[in-house]
């Protein structure tokens, strides 16, 4: 049964501007530990690809927060919601801390998809509750 759906579109130029203003502090407020490693590696190879990575994760976390119905209120913290990739490239959600505990207690699962084009990124999340 569907618990919630969330979608978000984000202008990657806005993320680039935030990163320029606030530096790595901005990235650390958005990304979890595994995502920070990927971000650093992508950014080292190509600054633009690092920004797109950060923008897609920001967007996906906004979508996730909408789908779970909490918005950006506790226990939802952006670094506790990681959007990682399987070896095939398929994105998936990995949760940590109080958010993971809350999510599991609700009996929820999540599916996420991301896309980027030029200056924009988009994400879509479906959160389902296991049937009783």
Automatic annotation (TrEMBL):
Reactions catalysed: apo-[ACP] + CoA = holo-[ACP] + adenosine 3',5'-bisphosphate + H(+)
Coiled coil: none
EC number: 2.7.8.7
Subcellular location(s) per record: Cytoplasm
GO molecular function terms attached to this record: holo-[acyl-carrier-protein] synthase activity
Main localization of the protein described in the UniProt heading: cytoplasm
Pfam assignment, any one: ACPS
Residue ranges of every copy of the 4'-phosphopantetheinyl transferase domain listed in the record: 4-122
Binding site for Mg(2+): 8, 62
SUPFAM superfamilies cross-referenced by the UniProt entry: 4'-phosphopantetheinyl transferase
The UniProt record lists the keyword Ion transport: no
Record key words, sorted: Cytoplasm, Fatty acid biosynthesis, Fatty acid metabolism, Lipid biosynthesis, Lipid metabolism, Magnesium, Metal-binding, Transferase
Class of the enzyme per the UniProt entry, highest EC level: transferase
InterPro entries assigned: 4-PPantetheinyl_Trfase_dom (IPR008278), 4-PPantetheinyl_Trfase_dom_sf (IPR037143), ACPS (IPR002582), Ppantetheine-prot_Trfase_dom (IPR004568)
Named cofactor requirement(s): Mg(2+)
Keyword Lipid metabolism: yes
General function of this protein: Transfers the 4'-phosphopantetheine moiety from coenzyme A to a Ser of acyl-carrier-protein.
Family: Belongs to the P-Pant transferase superfamily. AcpS family.
Protein name: Holo-[acyl-carrier-protein] synthase
Organism: Ideonella paludis
Lineage: Bacteria, Pseudomonadati, Pseudomonadota, Betaproteobacteria, Burkholderiales
Gene: acpS
